[in-house]
Batch of 2 targets.
Target 1
Amino acid sequence: HIAPDADASIRETDNDAAVARLSAAQKGYLHDPYIRHLVPRAHLQQPRPPLINVGTYVRGAAIDALVEQWLQIADKKTKKCQIVSLGAGSDTRFWRIANGTHKDTLATYVEVDFPEVTTRKAMSIRKSKELGAILGGDIQGGTALHAGKYHLLPGDLRMGPTALSTLLTGILDSSLPTLLLFECVLVYMVPSASDAVLRWFVDYFSDAKTPLGAVVYEMFNLEDAFGKVMVSNLKSRNVSIPGAEPYRNLEALSQRFLSTGFNTAHSETLREIRRTWIAPDELERLSMLEMLDEIEELELVLEHYAVSWGLAASGADASWGGWG
Ligand code: SAM
């Protein structure tokens, strides 16, 4: 037997996320004209079930809301900000922002993922006229890609502080407000490794006293019967999730920020977010797209995912993410 490559299984999860996003876009849940350029053979992909489409929508809407608010505050206060997406996979957020109302506020956008993932993404970007047009200029790239404000960087987030410094110093300006996005990635690493990543950023930005925000999206609360099914499904695909173990409730998710140097932290389940962040007419619109017979089943699924967010540095705008 050849030992299965655990990291290869983790990288595979990007395909799930991208195909789910493509499906939600094709079914009209969300608007994303870019994702089809990043999914291989996009036109041949089968749509995902309604439950997955709704979940993908709620997750995206939650992170969109936090990012939008961050950009709005930066618009008013500093005129410039940076966003760093860790474990970015095939995410299209850069193109959505770069083609949106806050494009001038975004000074730098960095994505980090395993080299296998960044190489593939860099290739897709170079192949797509539409993605390339938004990047503009001369697109350089192999395992990394640099074009204008956009930087796609290969790296293993478990690399430790010295390697993180080597990767990011020179690209990130420590005097600009910076938002970190960890969308379904910290769960794949042991807590000591993810804490080290959060601490590195807190340290990097602490001297300038510039606001540092972070958003984490994650599965959690996996102790009950449904959670155990989620864990065993992942295990059958050789995906282990050591980063889920300590996070049994929302308090624990918030505590992660406080114990790594952030000053404030909030957490909410996707179930709560669907109920309270999404406008009634938007929920109405979604309910017309596809038949979803069991709201209880949807809520059970959404209770096993959470968004948490924290803010570090004095003088930071406490109104960011000021829900709940
Ligand atoms: N954030 C994207 C999204 O939400 O669409 C992708 C999510 S996907 C479930 C997880 C991503 O995290 C994969 O692209 C995987 O390669 C990346 N990842 C997991 N562990 C990583 C690590 N140690 N270093 C770098 N990337 C990692």
Target 2
Amino acid sequence: MYNSKIIGLGKYVPENVVTNDDLSKLMDTNDEWITERTGIKERRWVKEGSDDTTATMGVKAAKIAIERSGLDKDDIDFIIFATLSPDMYFPGPGVQVQHALDIKTVGALDVRNQCSGFVYALSVADNFIKTGMYKNILVIGSELHSYGLDKTTRGRGVTVIFGDGAGAAVITREEDTSKGILSTHLHSQGEHAEELVLIAPGMGKRWVNDILAENDPNDESYFPHMNGQFVFKNAVVRFSEVIMEGLMQNNMDKDSIDMLIPHQANLRIAQFIQTKFQLSDDQVYNNIMRYGNTTAASIPIALCEAWEEGKIKSGDNVVLAAFGSGFTWGSAIIKW
Ligand code: ACO
């Protein structure tokens, strides 16, 4: 029996900074509304015509993570890619990474699960390593939201929240089972699938083809829809539950947390959790102010930055927690 541990982290965000004031030139919104409701001051949006895609940003983050891991690319024996914004409807970006990195013919798995995609992907990697099936797994979370957002006033409730970027981690076998990823916890509640949803180009409705034929400019199926207040209320409950679940499984309590990396959904959600668990500012890492919500990329980007800034030390108890569309949610408890 083994544990798994993270030995390399990388991130990539596009250069193009879009401030709240920039958005107010596209739609009826303003810095005060966005800052007060979400904490976001700016986000990165891929510039049209740039080479950045969900897959290529993932590759850039992955190269950094592999280099920092000290492994060679050919040591990677499995790839897991979490995203809700793949370059193509199929195949998913896992195989694009395998090709771009020129890593033999290792398996590549695509994970959906939206904002909790990285925690789900990490859990799969952890369990593949724990069973001995693979030794070194590359886990990526990457999103290019901006091409798919409604940049008119109609879409403002959703569009101002999301940003583009990628994060990656190399996970390897750890012989000492008191270290590394101690446990992961995954949940879903599909009855709320349509509270945060992008319907097209799903095959659930025959009319997708009809919409394309009609090219109806008022059709909203290709834009994400979110019942913001309902998502908020569920998020604060589920974040708390799944953090507690992880702590209890490892005989820990809130005082055991050295660093909480919440999915960067909304600063107000993170602050609610911080208050509930009575954590100091040093015990919670937030960067949503600079990047917005990058869904599956948000945790690996934040984890990478926290590590780069020296905020995570050997022996720390690091908690990852996410909640999002599905609803899906999850946590990971890590002894760094
Ligand atoms: N700028 C200005 N006004 C806006 C904007 C905007 N960008 N968006 C909406 N409004 C207006 C609305 O039209 C509405 O106007 P009205 O009162 O005249 O009808 C008013 O502001 C209030 O709108 P609400 O949607 O009720 O605003 P709310 O206070 O709920 O804030 C928000 C919206 C920020 C989305 C909030 O519900 C929220 O944070 N929800 C959590 C969801 C979340 O974090 N999602 C992230 C993705 S999911 C995840 O990662 C967990």
